[in-house]
Amino acid sequence: KIVAQAIPYIQQMPESRKAAGMWMFNQRASAFLQAVRQLFESHPLRDEHFWLMGPLPAIQAKRGGRFRWQLLLQHPSRSQLQKIVAQAIPYIQQMPESRKVRWNVDVDPTDG
Which part of the chain is the Primosomal protein N C-terminal domain (predicted)? Predict the structure, then answer.
């Protein structure tokens, strides 16, 4: 619900933020995550239980002078989610954008 409420704000964000290269308009990260999202959306193992959200700013949006984004992936079957991610990683590594941004896969980021 919070994300749905934020969309109109993001769409109306002043051009000055875009011109300044502020976090919502980091083009490399955004382009990379959009490409990764498309990869997951067309993944052959994807089913009606697979849930994908983002790209979104990370909870700690700026860390170490870098802006951070995230894609959230969920599936009720942990093994199915692991298969989807494991099969996607080689394709992600081959994307030209993957060499222009720092990225990683964090499984269960809320776990200890």
Answer: 27-109
